[in-house]
Design brief:
Radius of gyration: 15 Å
Distance between the termini: 23 Å
Helix content: 40-55%
Largest sheet: 5 strands, mixed
Number of strands: 7
Number of domains: 1
Strand order of the largest sheet: 3-1-2-6-7
Order of helices and strands: EEHHEHEHEHEE
Strand content: 15-25%
Structural class: alpha/beta
Number of helices: 5
């Protein structure tokens, strides 16, 4: 299992630390559960995928380019709620992170960390929103953004011909 996931929307994307993706998705799922739209078919399907992506990083995380404007607006609102919930804490103990069941009792693997700092996870959530809105800044030439690490956003060297588009 890889420690990274590629987060993709349409023809753009960035890399993210899988633990941070899992924590963000847990809070995104919590926000969706609290909302009144949880039973809409598109959100129910999206939540099903989010539960898998939270614990299995092999697939990457895709923001569906076929979502309607209203569905994108709902995702953004949920992501903002998830970020707001995480901003109330500096970190989440690993014991808490591994207590969250997702699919078939699979759990987030914290990769030896004693805690997950929330600021980098919030930064990841804001990057997803920016990607969805087409507002994510371009990474430096030959590099890709990497979000969610304990040290915050960084870049990773890519093939020199890669421009951040898929």
């Amino acid at each position: 299992m890889s420690a990274t996931q590629f987060v993709k929307y349409a023809d753009r994307g960035f890399w993210a630390y899988d633990v941070a993706v899992g924590v963000l998705l847990k809070h995104l799922l919590d926000a969706a559960q609290k909302g009144g739209e949880v039973h809409t078919p598109w959100l129910a399907e999206a939540m099903s995928h989010w539960r898998i992506w939270a614990v299995i990083s092999d697939y990457g995380f895709t923001l569906d380019e076929h979502w309607s404007a209203e569905e994108r607006k709902t995702f953004i609102a949920l992501a903002e709620q998830a970020c707001a919930a995480m901003r109330t804490r500096n970190s989440i103990p690993a014991e808490e992170v591994v207590s969250w069941p997702f699919v078939d009792d699979l759990r987030i693997f914290p990769r030896g960390a004693k805690e997950v700092l929330t600021a980098p996870v919030v930064e990841l959530g804001r990057a997803m929103i920016a990607l969805l809105l087409g507002e994510l800044p371009e990474a430096p030439k030959g590099e890709a953004w990497f979000y969610g690490t304990p040290d915050g956003r960084s870049t990773v060297r890519m093939n020199t011909s890669w421009d951040g588009r898929l």
